[in-house]
Amino acid sequence: MAKYRGPVCKLCRREGEKLFLKGARCFSPKCAFERRAYAPGMHGKASQFRSKRESDYHRQLRAKQKARRVYGVLERQFHRYYEVSLRRRGMTGLMLLQILESRLDNVVYRLGYAESRAEARVLVTHGHFTVNGRRTDIPSMLVSVGDRIAVREGSRSRTYFKNLPDLAETRTLVNWLERDLKQLSGSVLRLPERSEIDANLAEQSIVEYYSR
Q1: CATH class for domain 9-92+199-210?
Q2: This prediction's pTM
């Protein structure tokens, strides 16, 4: 399975804002973006003082790259999600974001069972979660309304999952999910509305990018 293996803090610096890709570390003084809030590379620091004017193409590209990096999706798969969203009834941009939110690794993260989407991806890949009672190790699996996601019975004796209820309780739960901390499970009540998805994502610019 292809994935980005480089330093994720560079991705935040390239986009010029925190994407919160490393969980709790992003809220600490150790966050690389706090120390170097400029683009990586030998000309990164100098780019702070250049003109902020940008072309439509640049704006669209950056919107697409930001969404890809937030959800940890590579280009080919991201483009495939866009093609699927085109075939659905409704606003293409919203359909795309709903598909990304429906990924199993994102749902595990939204339930509060992982500090970041990257950590959720690892936990799912190692087979620690079930969907409707069936063990799965596919982070990109798209869950549907009514699906039940739970920590696998054989994984609950691990230290991480023993401490998980206390950690998850500190995380705010989104309204489109239901969580049971005693059973370490959760359910999808409905698809998220636009107001319940990260506001800094410009889905219309993504649609414009692929519509060129």
Answers
A1: mainly alpha
A2: 0.81
